[in-house]
Amino acid sequence: MLHRRYITPSVLQNAKITFDMLRENYGLTPDLMSLLKYSVSEWVSLGLSEDFLLNQLAASPLYPKIFGMLSVQDVVSQIRRFSAITS
């Protein structure tokens, strides 16, 4: 967290670090996501999955801190659009 301004989503992408890797290997939690303050598109580009969104974040009280006023459906739409583009 101390280096979040240096460890940007683009730095993570260049290092081939994915959202799943952040969760599984580095302990990324919704609490940490809210502190990182990445945009929705940045989370999506790192590989935020629809499954994780719906099962871990949608009902979380941290959801608004992570995604602001965007609805769950808006975030799902961004995930699906990004998936369609990169497939």
Mean pLDDT: 93
Oligomerization state: single chain
Instruction: Assign an overall shape.
Output: globular
Total discrete domains:
1
N-to-C series of helices and strands: HHHHHHH
- The percentage helix is 55-70%
Radius of gyration: 12 Å
| Count of individual beta strands | 0
Strand content: under 5%
Q: Biggest β-sheet: count, sense, barrel? A: none
Q: Termini distance?
A: 32 Å
> Which class of secondary structure composition applies to the elements?
mainly alpha
Specify the number of helices: 7
Low-confidence stretches: none
Can you give a write-up of this model?
The chain is mainly α and 87 residues long. It has one domain (9-86). The protein has helices at residues 9-14, 19-26, 30-36, 40-46, 50-57, 63-67, 72-86. Helix 4 (40-46) packs across helix 7 (72-86). It starts with 8 loop residues before the first helix and ends with a helix. The mean pLDDT is 93.
Write the layout of secondary structure elements.
Blueprint: H1 9-14, H2 19-26, H3 30-36, H4 40-46, H5 50-57, H6 63-67, H7 72-86
